[in-house]
Structure formats: C-alpha cells, structure tokens
Design a protein that fits this description.
2 domains; Thrombin, subunit H; 2 helices; 6-stranded antiparallel beta barrel; mainly beta
C-alpha cells in the first residue's frame, strides 16, 4: 500500500479579467450603464475610470455595481469589493477580489443568414460606414466589411430590419476578421427590448425559410 497519494485537489479556475485600456460597462442596480476604461490590472484587482460625467456613487450603489465586458466566449460579468480609489476623484474606482457571477454564452443565440443594411459609426473618429450583414444572431452579426474596421474596434450600429420595422441600435465590438475580409461583431451594449425585437426578427426569418422549404418540397 502506497502512502501519501491522497486525492489531488483541483486547481481553481482563474477569473477572466479585462485587459488594460479595455472599455467596459459598470451596471448599477437601478439599471444605469456607465462606460468605463481599465486603467490598471493586477493579479486580483482592477483600477477603473468612468468615462462619462456622473454623480459620486454612494456606498450602496458601489456595492451593487457589476462590471461587464466581452470575453472570448461571450459576455462576462464580475462583482467584488468596489470602492473609490480616492475620494477626491469620484470617477476612479477600485475593484478588489473580483468574482465571476455569470457568463452569457453568445453562441447560445440562434444565427441565421440574413442580408440587412447596417450603418456603423466608428467610435474612435465618428465616421459613418454603410455596410450589410451576412448573418445575424441575438449576440452579434457578421459584416461584409469595410476594410477600415479592425479587430478590437468599438462601433455604434443601426441595423435595418425592414421597411415597417424600427432599426435596432447599440454598440458592438469587432472580434475578428476572417479570410474573406468579413468582420465578426459581438454586441457590447444593447437594451433587452432591442435584443428581443432582433430575436423575434430572427425567428421570423427561420419561419420564412421553413415555409419556403415546404413549398419547394411540395
């Protein structure tokens, strides 16, 4: 009998943290969404700067804050000990001991082939781009172009669903560029009502595809 071979303890999975200078969102319990930037990233801490004018956050609001960002596999949500780094700078916050509270897998959304016009506004310089989608899901879309968009760019978008439908708007991040020059974008900021309308549109597209298939078979 061999001694000292107890059951090996599984290593805890490391928490995924956003990169330095990455743009994130701080969601409050009241439904506010505050854009912020990562100033510093440590082993178990993040220094964040809110990038829009806002009133100083009370202790209760700080406790409720959830940090959201887009990871390789979808939306990541973190919570931890949030505090003001310096009372004289109410827009600079420190998040210590972050823990993952939820990862929303973007691949859970149904994806359909759909060519729809989309206006894209590049966040860094504000220029307007006319493009169209190759496919669409509730978590993002694949753009036909243009070449000026690079991986990591954040853009505002206005996606046209049809002549009698309001366009869907939000903010997306270009994740990658494929070998055909198409841009895969994942939603970073989109309201739940806008996402529901988009998912309803996708279901309608699927229903129409099935109907066309039945007519063809018949």
């Amino acid at each position: 009998m061999k001694l000292g071979r107890g059951k090996r303890r599984e290593a805890s999975k490391p928490i995924l943290l956003p990169a330095r200078n990455e743009v994130v969102v701080l969601a409050t319990g009241a439904g506010e969404r505050l854009p912020a930037r990562v100033l510093e990233r440590g082993v178990n801490t993040l220094l964040l700067a809110i990038t829009i004018p806002t009133e100083p956050l009370s202790g209760e609001r700080l406790e409720d804050l959830v940090l959201e960002f887009t990871g390789p596999h979808g939306r990541v949500r973190l919570q931890g000990a949030m505090r003001l780094e310096n009372p004289a700078e109410p827009d600079v916050l420190r998040l210590d001991e972050p823990r993952s509270i939820e990862v929303l897998q973007q691949r859970e959304f149904v994806r359909v082939n759909a060519t729809r016009p989309v206006l894209v506004y590049a966040a860094k310089d504000g220029y307007e781009i006319e493009s169209y989608t190759v496919d669409i899901s509730g978590g993002g879309f694949l753009l036909a172009g243009p070449d000026t968009l690079k991986a990591g760019d954040r853009v505002q978008f206005r996606l046209a669903l049809g002549p009698e439908l309001e366009p869907v708007t939000g903010i997306a991040k270009i994740l990658r560029v494929d070998s055909r020059g198409r841009r895969a974008a994942v939603f970073e900021e989109i309201s739940e009502s806008e996402r529901r309308r988009l998912i309803r549109f996708i279901f309608d597209c699927q229903r129409d595809e099935r109907q066309r298939g039945l007519e063809y078979d018949g």
